[in-house]
Amino acid sequence: MEPMMVRRLWQLVEPVHALVYYAPELTEEAAALGLATDERWPGYFALRSAPLGAAGPELVTATYYSFSPRMVAEYVPAIWSVADPAKVLDARLSGVDRALRALLGDRVDSPELAEAAALARRAAEAADLAGRPLAAANADLPWPDAPHLALWQAATVLREHRGDGHVAALLTAGLDPTEALVSFAAVGAAPVEVFASRRWSAQEWAAARDRLAGRGLVDADGVATDAGRRLRDEVERRTDELAAAPWRALGPAVGRLAQLLAPVTGAVVASGMLPARSTLGIRRDAPAS
User: Fold this and answer.
1) Where are the domains positioned within the chain?
2) Fewest CB atoms less than 10 Å from the CB: which of 12, 165, 177, 287?
C-alpha cells in the first residue's frame, strides 16, 4: 500500500478518535464522574488509560512515551481514586455516543455509516497487536452494537496501533521521549510552545536539544539540519510502514472506507473542537478529503 494512503487514512481516523478528549459531552461525562475539568488532563489521562485498567504512572508514562513522568504522576494513579476504569469506559462510550449524534444528526443511522463501521472494524480486527499495548487494550474491549460507536472504537484501535508503532520507530531512531518532541519541533511540525503541554522543563528541553546537536541533527538554534530532517522523515516512513497492515487487509475496499470516513472527519473538524495545532503535527484546518 502506498505510504500516502496510509498517512491519509491516519489523518481521517485521528480526529474521529480525538473527539473523546475535546467534545463537550465528554467533559460533562468526566465531571459527572467527579474528575476535575478546569484543565483537560484528569479527563485525558482517565479516558485514554482506562482500557489498561488502574494503570500506575510508570505504565502510563511508558505507553504514552512523550509525556514528562512528573506530569503523569500528578494525575496517575489519583484519577482512579475518583473514578474506577470500568466507570470511565462506560462514561466515554456514553459521551462519544452523544457527541457523534450531535455532530452527525440523522447520519448516525445511515447505511453509509454502518458500512464505514463494518470496514473500519475489519481493519481494526486485522491489526497485529504484538508489542502494541494501547491498541491491544482497546481491542480487548467489547464491540458496541451501534455502528457509530463501533466506528469510533475501530478508529481508536487503529489510532493507538499507529501510535504504538510510532513509539517503536522513535526507539529505533534512538530518540528518547524529550528528543522525540525536540526533533519534531525542529522540523516545524508545530511551534515549540505547543510541545510545552508535555511539561518537560526548559532545562530538559535544552539538554535534549544539545544531545541532538551533538549528533548533528539540529543546529545551534534548534532547527533541524539536513540529517535531522532525514531522520524524522525515516521515523514517519517507518511509522506509516508499521501502520499499513490493517488497511492492507481491506484490499480494494480501503478506498471506499476513506470515502466514507471523510464526511465524519469533516464534521469533527468543522465543529472547531480540535486545537488548531497539536503535537501530532496535524492542523485543525487541514482538509479531511
Assistant:
1) 3-270
2) 287
**What distance lies between CA 152 and its chain's CA centroid?**
12
Q: Each residue of 42-83: pLDDT tens digit?
A: 999 999 999 999 999 999 999 999 999 999 999 999 999 999
| DSSP structural state of residue 224 | B
Position 190 scores a pLDDT of: 86
3-class SS of residue 261: helix
Task: Give residues with Cβ within 8 angstroms of 209, minimum separation 6.
Answer: 182, 218, 222
How far is the CA of 9 from the CAs of 176, 222, 271, 289, in angstroms? 27, 31, 20, 10
Distance CA 97, CA 149 (A): 6
Q: 159-192 burial string, b = 16+ CB within 10 Å, else e?
A: bbbbbbbbbbbbeebebebbbbbbbbbbbebbee
What residue type is assigned to position 92 of the chain?
A: R
User: Is there a contact between 157 and 135 (Cβ–Cβ < 8 Å)?
Assistant: yes
**H-helix or E-strand spanning residue 3:** helix 3-22
pLDDT digits (tens, 9 = 90+) for 93-149: 999 999 999 999 999 999 999 999 999 999 999 999 999 999 999 999 999 999 999
Quote the cell numbers at residue 117: 463501521
